[in-house]
Amino acid sequence: MTTIGQAAERHAAAHDPEPGPALPDAASLAMRAVHRAASDLRRGTPVLLTGPGGPLIIAAAETVGARGLAELSALATGPAVLLLATTRAAAVLHRPVPSQGAIPAGTASRGVEPKGIQESPVALSLPPALLDPVHLRSLADPVAEQLLPATPELTAPPPLAFAAIALAKLGRLLPALVAAPVAAHGVATTGSLPRQEAAAALLSLPAADVLAYPSTAATSLTRVAEAQVPLEDSSETRIVAFRAADGGIEHLAILVGDPEGLFAAGGAPLVRAHSECFTGDLLGSLRCDCGPQLRGAIARMAKDGAGVLLYLAQEGRGIGLVNKLRAYTLQDQGLDTLDANRALGYGADERGFMVAATMLRQLGITRVRLLTNNPDKLSGLAACGIDVEGREPHSFAANGVNDHYLETKAERFGHML
Ligand SMILES: Nc1nc2c(ncn2[C@@H]2O[C@H](COP(=O)(O)OP(=O)(O)OP(=O)(O)O)[C@@H](O)[C@H]2O)c(=O)[nH]1
Ligand SMILES: [Zn+2]
What we know:
Elements: H1 4-14, H2 25-42, E1 47-50, E2 56-60, H3 66-75, E3 81-84, H4 86-93, E4 122-125, H5 133-140, E5 154-155, H6 161-170, E6 176-181, H7 186-189, H8 193-201, E7 204-206, H9 207-219, E8 222-228, E9 237-243, E10 250-257, H10 259-264, E11 270-275, H11 278-282, H12 290-304, E12 306-312, H13 315-318, H14 321-332, H15 337-343, H16 354-362, E13 367-371, H17 375-383, E14 387-392, H18 403-412
Parallel strand pairs: 1-7, 11-12, 11-13, 13-14
Antiparallel strand pairs: 1-2, 2-6, 3-4, 3-6, 4-5, 8-9, 9-10, 10-12
The chain binds guanosine-5'-triphosphate and zinc ion.
């Protein structure tokens, strides 16, 4: 999420008479509230979600402490529950939990929104013995499991449960939240004084804004800086930085040669949509193939004369570095890369393609030859309006450590060779 430095820049931008992206005020304010709410969840502070069937007070099971739970209890007008993905709930209950079906129609469109967030969560009852920060963390995290003093039961999820989980995911937290109903209108007007004060201290935002955030943030990206950066594998290289209107995560485009010129002359430049991988890209981790794919793509573009490498801030297929490390621990216990994501409550792949499509559009490149083995990248970019003229395979030999990872991508993600 955003650093304090980024927050300061955002504050300055708010007073800039010409703040870059031309977003309507309402959309800008909505993004700001979502960004803040995700930060609140990260620091253990509850937030209020409003919308049909709400309001709902929520706090992240991973981060909430005694104070956050006290705030939640002070405002709750009904019993608290734990919202979880069905996969995580099944592990907690030691029995299968039927899928709750797709999310409400109209909140996501196929190929544009990440496929990992399509399923509705379930709710577990929280007997008083479990309403404790240590037990909640244990219920949320398959890596931190311990014996619990009480057994939760499946119960009906509140109507805004899906948006609550989506907010935790935006905060790159474990998708597990304590949630309780709050009286609609009752808090501000008829609640007791301590209750009114507690409610006033918390951020309240529409659930619909949370669901709209990924595509609003992606389409609000603008170019904020660029520079020549000669690379070992490509001497003629520029890096262009993109930032969303709320000052959120930045994405980079690495331009090799003159891809805009190639496109303008009627060509389809080589493009690679590369999701960042701290361990593979920077440290040379052998667990994945990201390092060779990154360097290999740039070298290939240099040989081809031109290309665009989109370096996307979508670490761990969109679950974030902390959760990827958790997923690695689960993989060391026997799960594959797909099931490890699911065990954490995340989808197999939480990435959206609108970020990459917007960056390409801003660069003026709308027809591409995509370097990938991943069929979802082809259909996802096409669904976001990019003309994918062809695919160039992008495979590297297994290294003795990542063999099973590559096999899983071929067998379970449908990767082409
Ligand atoms: N969650 C999770 N993410 C991983 C794992 N291994 C690598 N990644 C992430 O996967 C992303 C890299 O995926 P990509 O290089 O885009 O690969 P891809 O989707 O397999 O598609 P192509 O390489 O284009 O064929 C990076 O963000 C990595 O951090 C893992 O075991 N679990
Ligand atoms: Zn990697």
